[in-house]
Amino acid sequence: MNFGIRNKVALVAAASRGLGYATAMELAREGAQVAVCGRDEQRIHRAAAELSASTGGRILPVVADVEKAQDCEYFIAQAAETLGSVDILVTNAGGPPAGFFDDIDDESWALGFERTMMSAIRLIRAALPHMREKKWGRIVAITSISVKQPIPGLLLSNALRPGVVGMAKSLADEVALEGITINAVCPGWTATERVDEILQARAESRGISKQEAAAEIEQSIPMRRMAKPEELAAMVTFLCSARASYITGTTIQVDGGAFRGLM
To answer: Are residues 214 and 145 in the same domain?
Structure first.
């Protein structure tokens, strides 16, 4: 299948590792020019070099922390200036701090809001003028299965990520006549460094091994395994493609069937 995004300019936030990195890899394999950002200069440059070596594509590394308003604007501006356009935007950020209600103070709530909600809003706000100028654009927000089914111990994610989906759904209506689609993708349990950290915390709090904590989660998934990052990236890349031109305002989970609801 030809995804029709060769030479399109795609921006992937927080792409030095994990789901962002996997998504950047898939987009580059489809022929897109890809700008990636991360707050660690050494790590994002190393990731860009790996992506370029693996795909032969043009990869632009940008040092930017999506928790900061000026860095969101800088990322979009650098990509547009260097690569000439902004056609595709994938919003992404590290998950907010884990914890139950009594564990979370005002500072953690504020941090979670900046990282989870405002990062997506600011990136989209900066990218939209470029897409509107061309009457074409693809925006995909990487969220979490927690927007459909809350995850114990991740109260901030459960509370804040649905706001990203509400914003994306509302905005999809506003820009539908401008050739721009907006969708949200919800990863379930996926084998990333972030999930490894959550498993370690769960194991320590319950006095079990990390392997036992992982096995308990896998038993709740019909496929009896966690996802690979590239499996999530494949869905994101399809939604960024020309072939997905009539899909907008959706929230799609990639979770091996773990979500128990009907929709």
So the answer is: no
